[in-house]
Amino acid sequence: MKQFDLLIRNGTVVTASDTVQCDIAIAGGRIVQLGHDLGSAREEIDASGKLVLPGGVDAHCHLDQPMPDGLKMADDFESGTISAACGGTTTVIPFAAQEKGESLRAAVADYHRRAEGRAVVDYAFHLIVSDPTETVLRDELPSLIRKGYTSFKVYMTYDDLKLNDREILDVLTVARQEGALVMIHAENSDCIAWLTDRLEAEQKTAPRFHAIARPMAIEREATHRAITFSELVDVPILIVHVSGREAVEQIRWSRARGMKIFAETCPQYLFLTASDLDQPGYHGAKCVCSPPPRDRANQEVIWDGLADGLFTIFSSDHAPFRYDDPQGKQPGGQEVPFRYIPNGIPGLETRLPLLFSEGVGGGRISLNQFVALTSTNPAKLYGLHPRKGTIAIGADADLAIWDPQREVVIRNADLHHAVDYTPYEGTRVKGWPVTTLVRGKVVAHEGKMQATAGHGEFLPCALPEMAKPRYRTSGGSL
Ligand code: URP
Ligand code: ZN
Ligand code: ZN
Q1: Which residue segment(s) compose the domain that 119 sits in?
Q2: What GO CC terms are in its UniProt record (predicted)?
Q3: Residue 47, C-beta contacts closer than 8 angstroms, at least 6 positions apart
Q4: Is residue 210 in some structural domain?
């Protein structure tokens, strides 16, 4: 009788702290032994010459999120998670978004219906709080947090989602009371609207003006304001999708004051610049996202922040809209002024290879930092560790087996999302995840799906240790 379900032999096993040669024994979907000469299994994978990493945890992606104004996200839980799996990601955390006037519980129930039976990798939900009524603050939010929805995003911009300062303080107060983590989209809405109106008055409506309407100063101001809220309420926050120097400086300043301000960045701030919004015709719409990509000097600032620990996590912010689609980047079939272009770019499948190639291959971050930023830290930050995000006895056998020598030219035709473009078309990378396992089952191998929709399970999240307050306030007793 064979002892294990699966043995992964001869690989180099990498975690956030260690790199070791050892075999991995898997039974019942979990890692049960690490070592040498472990015995026999019903199946074996020979990982000679390969790296065995914890599967990626993409803690910021948008899948099948209901959209206003006839827009539609291209990826649902099936295509999105297939794409994730083929890119070495084994857990995704998309957003159950509350519409204004809607109950938060109803938004969560609706989102479960969208996910159920479709995902191939495991998933948890963040919440998006867009209408913090008394009922939401006193009843719905606390009760959802206790049921495993322990993180939520608030927006300082976008008319259909944004909260005012007072509302954000109220949401942060609930997070502090309950031990949840708030993610903040930090851009100053009024400044964007003012700049947009001025640009439109001068007929400056092409996609490239999106970046001009959202300069770094408005991200800096909002980041500083969010940090101030965190200080007043004495609760840690995460600033999502940080784009460049100005926001980075604010976060460094807050850290130097001992504050628990976490930060996330994304591939678009390393591999794209504002000039990618200035493509012939309307093609720049493909790279319209917020905050917008900046310039080469700012890319270096982001690389420095990844290398020196300023950034805790590296996520895709996959927000999939097809280019040639009336429900996507050309709403109603038109090339529209930039204010109407849906924000967001695809990136679930390319997140890890891009960072691996340029970050690890380019000598900017170590392999262990790569694992920390893309898997271990997001699992810790959102209450999924140690079940997810590491290779350890008892952890889920969520693994990505990488060929560090594999050279790939990224082509949209080879990706598995339902978007009709990738902003990284033609980019050469070295290193690619060839086999991805979720709870011990191979879900993707050499770009082919090996699992059926529904293999992915919902993960309730624990209260994140990292969200604990410092128990200091500058704003009086709360
Ligand atoms: O442009 C972006 N980032 N779109 C997705 C929504 C968000 O703000 O994360
Ligand atoms: Zn955002
Ligand atoms: Zn996002």
Answers
A1: 56-370
A2: cytosol
A3: 8, 9, 10, 11, 12, 401
A4: yes
